[in-house]
Q: What sequence folds into this?
């Protein structure tokens, strides 16, 4: 055993560095998760600044803060950022950190592929944002309806940045999905049956399936767009027989599963936090799992509810109305199950719990307005007005972002071994709650009064001036709330109160190992006998195994090639901007060099 | 050391889930993603084509169906030789593995070459993905209009994406063959051949659908 | 290491490893299922009995041909001009054509209250959104598609058309107008903002 111990030390020392190089070459899922989180927060700040400028412009009728062209770029980049550069990657940050810990694995199935996903995401994001440097950021809205994005109507590089950037990000997401599905199916600890997995892992599982099935459809749509713009094909050009509605179908076939890609991880986070602070097992675990799967499944049959106004005909309208309303049922089941979990529980109103409860309530507001859109006659009144903006911000800000804040406060002790400040946390929560409602609730009325979305200015005759002003004030309060979160993280990272391995008294496996977890996660892989391994009898053995002195554990060594290959992959897409047909081949060659080196790199 | 190896990324050790090792499961999941990609392409093709029946000439008037039928046969043969390569290594036959891997690679290259010849001929007749050259197709053979502007675009996109997949497959086959000649695959440990085979069969399967829908219908 | 043998999730474990649904869970299943059925039945009923969905007919159309048709329509029934855009008064019950283009609605329509028209919507260039203000009814105007809607103006007055599908830099300035006169052709004394019925 002594020699094994020696080997452990000899092998871990090179992995455990803290310099920049160690972060560039890391394949540790926990470090990649931190990279994902920090990068997503940076993009959250950028997207937030864009939103604040938009709100300043709209604070008064006939606003003149920015030009119409800048406004178009800002709202497009706000949407693209919040969906692709913040919402998805911040969920992936949680996937990365928690899935291996929750299922009792030492790492994900393909650690280097995991690093590659991250670097593609980072470079893809930088590529998208570099468009501001040439003053030609995407300006066709985040769903870039054809044919506005064609060469004829957008002669600049704007739509090229959009199509190529999203293409690169899609590659990263598909790789991530493959990785997480394999991890969850194959890497579970002994006894960690599917129906014993924590709900967060379950929802990540469903999300990963949506990722690998939805993103290829977006890839098809974007390839057509790229070919139209680069090589003069006519997929979306009406005059040549192309079909602009095709873009809408393809985009929303991706776009609606995408909505659930954004919200299902949030559901998972809530389903882990609420039982902990209610001191009760999750009510109706199996039903929660099945409803999550059902949401994922039905999300493939609802896309055309985004297109009621294009005149699909009564049969299609009725079909998509019904399918969309059906999706409200599993969602409603989840909401009631969270309430039932809290019912009769010993509630502790910590910051993560406050965020979770607020999410349940506010998400329901967004959910209900979603059912309103589902009815196609009602949708014709609401579509493309601010009512829709109000709806999906209630879903994404009060759903995804709020749950992510809850998750940040909840898992921070696990990641750093320190609590976040509860006092700042309470401020953070209430500012978020007030700011969020002040910003987005008036938008329901702004929309019903007839203000279309994506308008640069509006006339005072619309009688929405005060409501818009309120939304602007709310947006700034919301900005302070996000700032407080960042301040709290920065302060608590060094000065927070020390936390034990299971500071909240939670039930799931990630709390068995020490805080922060060692690189190998578990000294011995624990054997799982039930859904609440840290609550039910046998918990001592689980904790003992998790924190045991490690035997001879081999962890994958760091690798530079994911970073290198990611430059090649994003570079391939970026070089399309030059307009030379051979330029992307440079990126392909670079990628090939990376892959060959990757393949021959020793992993032992 | 044996225990250390067992805890890492064993090639063929059954895992608690599917009883399938990681690389193979990962390939299956990736192929699911690929299925969605080609479904998107084929679905779009069907929508565009049946909305514009006049833009698409009857089968066989522009495309050389017999040539591509032969090419399809080549690809199916390569699938067979891939199976034989896998069967050889399952039986521990290194020589068979090398022979059939080389055969698969050669057939893949032959497929790509024939596709290259086909593309060159079509392009010389004026069939290009771009709209501006659409009338050139019409002049070919003296008939009024052989293909609308979408015809070239969809044809090259669908077959081109498949060709890109075959190209990647051939590159991986070359890599696998090099490893096979160095004796890296054994009767017990030949996951690389198995996942290579999965990918290759998938690419063949897609071609059979594409051949039917682009060339024959 | 573990005493338990390796598990595979595909083989069911021995014994009764699940828990029976609690009585309250069963009640909840019942309620959820019932509600599911209500929702399921609601939408077809709403469509066929309530007559609420617009039974518009959408056809493919060549944008150039559609524009020529609109020009013809303007030539035939032009009665005046408003800020450079012709005002068109088509005969009652006829087909009415409206063209969306970057960034205006062409032409201005003058319709009679209580008469059914077939309103054709299409675009010359990119997607636009036909939003009748202040009624808040939205239809997407897509190039290459002719969206034929049967409408009966139920209120006289001036109605604005706002573009509500993002269409580029002039999106916020893309305004149009529909004038609805009384049955006798007179304008109402004062503007009323109320429903135009869309079937």
A:
């Amino acid at each position: 055993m002594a020699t094994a111990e020696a080997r452990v030390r000899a092998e871990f020392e090179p992995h455990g560095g803290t310099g920049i190089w160690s972060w560039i070459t890391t394949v540790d899922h926990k470090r990649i998760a931190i990279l994902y989180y920090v990068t997503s927060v940076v993009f959250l700040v950028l997207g937030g600044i864009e939103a604040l400028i938009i709100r300043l412009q709209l604070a008064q009728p006939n606003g003149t803060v920015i030009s119409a062209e800048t406004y178009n770029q800002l709202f497009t980049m706000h949407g693209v950022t919040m969906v692709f550069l913040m919402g998805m990657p911040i969920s992936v940050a949680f996937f990365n950190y928690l899935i291996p810990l929750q299922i009792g694995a030492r790492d994900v199935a393909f650690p280097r592929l995991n690093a590659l996903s991250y670097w593609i995401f980072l470079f893809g994001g930088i590529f998208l944002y570099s468009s501001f440097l040439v003053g030609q950021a995407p300006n066709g809205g985040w769903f870039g309806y054809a044919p506005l994005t064609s060469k004829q109507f957008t002669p600049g590089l704007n739509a090229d940045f959009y199509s190529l950037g999203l293409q690169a990000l899609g590659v990263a997401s598909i790789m991530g999905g493959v990785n997480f599905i394999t991890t969850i199916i194959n890497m579970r600890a002994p006894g960690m049956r599917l129906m014993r997995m924590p709900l967060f892992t379950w929802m990540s599982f469903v999300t990963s399936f949506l990722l690998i099935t939805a993103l290829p459809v977006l890839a098809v749509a974007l390839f057509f767009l790229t070919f139209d713009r680069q090589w003069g094909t006519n997929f979306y050009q009406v005059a040549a027989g192309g079909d602009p509605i095709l873009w809408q179908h393809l985009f929303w076939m991706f776009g609606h599963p995408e909505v659930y890609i954004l919200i299902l991880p949030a559901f998972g986070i809530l389903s882990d936090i609420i039982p902990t602070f209610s001191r009760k097992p999750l009510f109706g675990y199996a039903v929660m799992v099945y409803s999550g799967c059902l949401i994922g499944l039905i999300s493939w049959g609802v896309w055309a509810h985004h297109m009621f106004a294009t005149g699909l005909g009564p049969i299609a309208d009725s079909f998509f109305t019904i399918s969309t309303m059906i999706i409200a049922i599993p969602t409603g089941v989840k909401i009631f199950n969270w309430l039932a979990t809290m019912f009769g529980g010993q509630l502790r109103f910590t910051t993560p719990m406050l965020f979770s409860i607020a999410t349940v309530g506010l998400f329901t507001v967004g959910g209900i307005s979603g059912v309103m859109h589902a009815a196609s006659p009602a949708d014709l009144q609401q579509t493309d007005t601010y009512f829709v903006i109000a709806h999906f911000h209630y879903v994404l800000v009060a759903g995804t972002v709020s749950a992510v804040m809850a998750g940040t406060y909840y898992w921070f002790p696990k990641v750093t071994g320190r609590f976040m400040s509860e006092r700042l946390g309470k401020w953070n929560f209430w500012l978020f709650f007030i700011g969020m409602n002040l910003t987005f609730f008036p938008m329901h009325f702004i929309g019903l009064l007839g203000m279309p979305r994506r308008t640069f200015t509006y006339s005072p005759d619309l009688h929405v001036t005060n409501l818009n002003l309120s939304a602007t004030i709310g947006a700034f309060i919301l900005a302070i709330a996000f700032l407080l979160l960042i301040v709290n993280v920065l302060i608590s990272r060094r000065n927070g109160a020390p936390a034990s391995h299971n500071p909240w008294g939670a039930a799931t496996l990630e709390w068995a190992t020490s805080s922060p977890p060692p690189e190998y996660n578990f000294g011995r892989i624990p054997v799982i006998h039930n859904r609440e391994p840290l609550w039910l009898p046998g918990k001592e053995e689980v904790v003992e195994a998790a924190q045991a002195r490690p035997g001879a554990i081999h962890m994958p060594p760091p690798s530079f090639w994911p970073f290198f290959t990611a430059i090649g992959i994003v570079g391939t897409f970026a070089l399309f901007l030059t307009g030379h047909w051979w330029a992307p081949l440079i990126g392909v060659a670079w990628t090939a060099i990376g892959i060959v080196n990757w393949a021959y790199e020793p992993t032992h | 050391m044996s225990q250390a190896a067992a805890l890492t990324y064993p090639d063929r050790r059954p895992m608690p889930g599917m009883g399938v090792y990681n690389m193979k499961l990962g390939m299956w999941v990736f192929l699911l993603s690929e299925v969605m990609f080609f479904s998107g392409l084929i679905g779009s093709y069907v929508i565009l084509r049946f909305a514009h029946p006049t833009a698409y000439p009857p089968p066989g008037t522009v495309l050389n169906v017999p040539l591509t039928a032969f090419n399809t046969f080549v690809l199916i043969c390569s699938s067979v030789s891939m199976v034989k390569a896998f069967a050889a290594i399952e039986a521990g036959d290194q020589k068979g593995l090398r022979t059939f891997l080389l055969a698969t690679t050669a057939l893949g290259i032959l497929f790509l070459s024939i596709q290259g010849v086909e593309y060159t001929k079509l392009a010389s007749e004026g069939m290009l993905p771009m709209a501006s050259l659409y009338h050139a197709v019409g002049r070919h053979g003296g008939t009024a209009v052989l293909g609308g502007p979408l015809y070239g675009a969809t044809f090259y996109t669908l077959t081109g994406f498949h060709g890109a997949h075959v190209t990647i497959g051939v590159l991986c086959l070359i890599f696998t063959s090099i490893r096979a000649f160095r004796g890296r695959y054994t009767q017990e440990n030949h996951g690389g051949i198995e996942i290579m085979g999965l990918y290759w069969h998938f690419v063949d399967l897609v071609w059979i659908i594409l051949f039917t829908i682009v060339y024959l219908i | 290491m573990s005493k338990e043998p390796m598990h595979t999730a595909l083989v069911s474990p021995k014994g009764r490893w699940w828990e029976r649904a609690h009585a309250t869970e069963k009640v909840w299943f019942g309620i959820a299922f019932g509600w599911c059925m209500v929702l399921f039945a609601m939408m077809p009923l709403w469509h066929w009995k309530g007559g609420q969905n617009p039974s518009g007919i959408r056809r493919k159309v060549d944008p150039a041909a559609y524009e020529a048709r609109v020009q013809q329509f303007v030539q035939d029934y032009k009665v005046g001009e408003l800020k450079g855009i012709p005002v068109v008064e088509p005969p009652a019950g006829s087909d009415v054509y409206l063209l969306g283009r970057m960034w205006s609605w062409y032409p201005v329509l003058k319709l009679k209250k209580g008469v059914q028209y077939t309103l054709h919507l299409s675009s010359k260039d990119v997607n636009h959104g036909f939003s009748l203000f202040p009624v808040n009814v939205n239809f997407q105007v897509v190039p290459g598609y002719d969206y034929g809607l049967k409408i009966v103006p139920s209120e006289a007055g001036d109605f604005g058309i706002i573009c509500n599908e993002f269409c580029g830099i002039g999106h916020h300035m893309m305004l149009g107008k529909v004038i609805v006169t009384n049955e006798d052709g007179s304008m109402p004394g004062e503007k009323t903002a109320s429903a135009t019925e869309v079937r």
